[in-house]
Amino acid sequence: MKKCLLLTAFLTITILCKSHEYIDSLSSALDTISSDRRKIGFCLNEFFKCSGPTLDECLEFVKMAEEINVNFKNKEAEAGIACCYGYYYQAKKQQDSAILKLSEAVEIYDQFDHENPQQSFAFGQLSVIYLDAGNYDKAVEWVWKAIDFAKSRGDSASVASNFANLANIYEVKEDFELAEFYYGKSAKGIQFCLGHLDQFEFPYDSTLMNNSYAINLGRYGSMLSKNEKHEKALEVLKEADALTIPEYYKMFILQNLAEAYKFSEEYDEALIRIEQSIVLADRLNLAYYALFNQIIRADILARQEKFDQALVLLLKVEDSISVLEHNSLVTEKLYSLLSEVCAGTKDFESAWKYSELKKLESDKTQKTKSEKLISSLQIEFESEEKERKNQLLKQENAFQQKISKIAIASAAGLLIALIIFGFLYRRNKRLKDNLSVRTEELEKSLETNKMLNREIHHRVKNNLQMISGLLELQTAKTENEEALKALNAGKSRVESIALLHQKLYQQQDLTEVDFQNYCQLIIDQMSGLIGEISLQIDLDNQGPYNIDIDQAIPLSLILNELLTNSLKYAFVNKEKGKINVAIRDVKGQHEFVYSDDGHGFSESTRLKNSSLGMSLIKELSRQLKGSVKWETDEGTEFRLSFPKLTLN
């Protein structure tokens, strides 16, 4: 069974392009196989040899295997079929269905006391799907499961293949140092396997491995090119281009090579390669990739300042792209390039229009990423819930089996029957208690959406802290005083927003925040800016005061700017000072009051002040639909009144 269902290490980058005639011939060959076990293995292996253009046609092999297994009823075959469907759904971007099918396969494999080579493939594909959904932690977890599994079986080729998947994860996370390290390990691993095919226990296909090597080099070279390591990128991609591989994959190698030449400013070589890629896309009838290559071609022309030629190409792409499956990333690239080219031709009105369209597509892309992440988290939760239900079902089945045995034994006598009855009563009571606990657990699952939202706030907080850290690193490398001030101000604003998201994921209510407590956190955070002055900051603490989350963010930024301004200017040449902060309800509205006893400034000076901080305070107050009043007679007082938000 293991040999019949054995999948090679490179199922994720399948190679052989097939015609209708070839698929028909394979269907005929299936009739010559007598064993159901061998027929299923034949069908599944042939499906995994199909490439992108023929994947829909080759799905017939999986359906044939499924029909055969209706009577054969083999669990390992069932898992292999689930793997095939998972791979198919992943290729078709139906991520929810792909995760469910691959999880089903993993669940079946876990039931056996022996290992199946397809388990490594299932692990690897789950990693690819979670990466596409933006769930990097789960992606890394599954790819390491695949690597460890392959290592335990001595499957060197699968280890090398999954190192490429790990490198891709780090590339998406923009950790290019680790990405380059694992791409290099993957390439060396596959190259070693190619040179020692006769020494391995596994029946590796040399053609598949050669093509896998080329595809891996293509991904490696593309990453190096984007990371501005142009000389090494060209070296790697030229090696991939020299290999003999099918046209479907040759198209992508040429596309990556064209991009590398473009980044190296070797535009003539870049045009030659992208035109070759376009020819292959047309020959394979892949309209989507042909149009995408035309965008790259236009980009090369634009870099040569041949704006008119580039504009003609891009307008043709714009006219044609609507008939294809929508892809926000590709459309975003198209509009971005159209904006640049129109600016190059001095058509600034069109440049602005395409810039706005690009922003819309960018928003769609971010929304899609968020939806994918939430969907993957939901599926992950549902899988765990399913596992709990399966455990409960196993307990119920075990209980039923015990009842049957007890019923047979009851014929031994009334005394035994009474003992058994008491035993059953106690066991039944415990079962009901267990079912009651399970019911409560299911009711708690209704709170899942809150958990997901809280997780998102947690991730937003982490990302903002990462941005703050990057700004901190930048300040260490910046000597210009004005630039340092700007970086520190930006860091302070980012940290204020991060604090708010930290509070949100730590509390139950995700719609409102206790602004009194939040003000104290901001004040504590900025205490490092106080310097040598003896400063007293009083918060009008009359108990919790909740405001809507949509109003808390702009109000926190206003507080941040006011504190920064006071600490920088209000107490110059003073030994001590005092700041008061208060927020209260006044006639059904929020009233925020901030004051210090510093030097103050005249109204005319404030109006003339065009600093970013003052501009931010003005714009954020307008965003809150509030009215602002300044008092500068003795120190400075800022009073902001704004309406409360009404929750639906």
Structure classification: alpha+beta
Helix fraction by DSSP (H/I, runs of at least 4)? over 70%
Task: Give the overall shape, derived from the CA principal axes.
Answer: flat
Largest sheet: 5 strands, mixed
Figure out the total of helices. Answer: 24
Residue fraction in strands: 5-15%
Q: Tell me, rounded to a whole number, the average pLDDT.
A: 76
Number of strands: 7
The Cα radius of gyration reads: 32 Å
Provide the low-confidence segments as ranges: 1-19
Strand order in space, largest sheet: 2-4-5-7-6
- In whole angstroms, how far apart are the ends? 60 Å
Describe it for me?
With 648 residues, the chain is of the alpha+beta class. Helix content is 71%, strand content 7%. It has 24 helices and seven strands. The two termini are 60 Å apart. The model is unreliable at 1-19 (pLDDT under 50).
Write the layout of secondary structure elements.
Elements: H1 20-30, H2 36-48, H3 55-72, H4 75-91, H5 95-109, H6 118-132, H7 136-152, H8 156-172, H9 176-195, H10 206-226, H11 230-242, H12 247-263, H13 267-283, H14 287-303, H15 307-321, H16 328-344, H17 348-409, H18 414-444, H19 448-476, H20 481-506, E1 512-514, H21 515-525, E2 534-539, E3 546-548, H22 549-570, E4 576-586, E5 589-596, H23 603-608, H24 612-623, E6 627-631, E7 636-643
Parallel strand pairs: 2-4
Antiparallel strand pairs: 1-3, 4-5, 5-7, 6-7
Helix pairs in contact: 2-3, 2-4, 3-4, 4-5, 4-6, 5-6, 5-17, 6-7, 6-8, 7-8, 8-9, 8-10, 9-10, 10-11, 10-12, 11-12, 12-13, 12-14, 13-14, 14-15, 14-16, 15-16, 16-17, 17-18, 19-20, 20-22, 21-22, 22-24
